[in-house]
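Figure 2 data, in text form.
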Amino acid sequence: MTHTGLNSCHNKGNQKITQNIVTPTMCILFLYYLPHGSYYRLIVANNRDEVFERPTEPATFWKDHSDVLAGRDLKVNNGGTWFGITVGGRFSTVTNFVTPPSGLISKPKSKGHLVIIASKSYRDGHHLNGFSLLTADLSAENKDTSLAYTCNYDTDGARVLDPGVYGLGNSLLDNPWHKVKQGMEKFSNIVKSPDSTLTDQLFNLLSDCTKWPDPNIPNIGCNEEYNNNVSAIFMKPSRDQKGRLCGTRSQTVLLVSGDGDVTYTERSLQPSTAQWTTVSHTVTLKI
């Protein structure tokens, strides 16, 4: 899950348009990437906003890719994911880029495979609706160009990022919505003075329901409640234009120490009971 070949992922605009709304599901993440020699190398907090009925497997090591630790989207053939790390130190995560109706394609491929195949030269970005992809290579031999970003609607192409704090939602990395800006400020305060409550503080941040009205968030064609909920870091469950229950269905906190020790904590919301189920994995990277 590295960034090799990501320059070639741009949308060609050559697919037939059949939908009349922008992508309705959202996600948000906050990331702190540090150079070699730091106490932490990587800290990530992620909300997956999705249809609750979409079949998903909680985070675990995959049987068919034993080096991959990730949740799994079971609706996709052979399974894809939105967030994962390998024991070799490669991290990737993908979010939707809200695509205007003129940019939607009729039979897009799944974005869930991007995280798994980001280590390869991927040349089918034009078969996907809008996405943003962040990848990091924490292996010992890769000390300089370890963090990269690409979006198939960003004309600048893939680029290497400097160490620092980043926030990514459903717009371009350099043009964040208000909720991302507000979350980045809180995230930065948390991760730059970490203590034993770091994971709990990050889950509290991911559960912030404060709405940040933003003219840059397009009307996504749903009811007013749904559209309003989109403006918060934590998206409360609400019905989309098809009557499906959507919202923040899982949250993940990933901590990678300078020694390669990983703590991966994921919790998933059961909307019928409003209860969370939590899985946690610890592993030392082979780097």
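Caption note: The domain at 6-284 is CATH 3.60.60.10 (Penicillin V Acylase; Chain A).
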